[in-house]
Amino acid sequence: MYRASDELDEAEWLADLEVAADRLDLGKEARSRARDVFLSTAPEEERSKRAVLGASLYVGALVAGDQQSQQAVADAVGVSRLTIQQRWKEQLRAAGLEPPDW
């Protein structure tokens, strides 16, 4: 859960999320989910935020059924595919969901 003030505090990162979502051509539901996950799990450290942003976008797309590869999300955000791979499950759990076992 996040506070309304978190949206103001993270406005620059949310703008980056929208730019990456545009690159991926994500739908409204995927964007909304990604935004909620990011705001709920945004770390204090600036250096970790890009990784969390990427994982949040991947989770948003996954939950919304908007098929995106980890590599495509990583490229859109500017992180490595390994970064997405290592973080997406924890982001999914933070959203209150269980990751698939495939």
Following the backbone from N to C, one meets helices and strands in this order, namely: HHHHHH
Strand tally is 0
Measured distance between first and last alpha carbons: 28 Å
Q: Ranges with pLDDT <50 over ≥5 residues?
A: none
**Radius of gyration from the alpha-carbon trace, in angstroms:** 12 Å
Give the overall shape, derived from the CA principal axes: globular
Q: What's the structural domain tally?
A: 1
- State the helix count: 6
Alpha-beta classification: mainly alpha
Element layout with pairings:
Layout: H1 4-9, H2 11-24, H3 28-41, H4 46-64, H5 70-77, H6 81-94
Helix pairs in contact: 2-3, 2-4, 2-5, 3-4, 4-5, 4-6, 5-6
Report on the structure:
It is a single chain. 74% of the residues lie in helices and 0% in strands. The protein is an all-alpha fold. The protein has one domain (4-94): Cyclin A, domain 1 (Orthogonal Bundle). Helix 4 packs across helix 6 (81-94) and helix 5 crosses helix 6 (81-94). The longest helix has 19 residues, at 46-64. The radius of gyration is 12 Å and the shape is globular. The N and C termini lie far apart (28 Å).
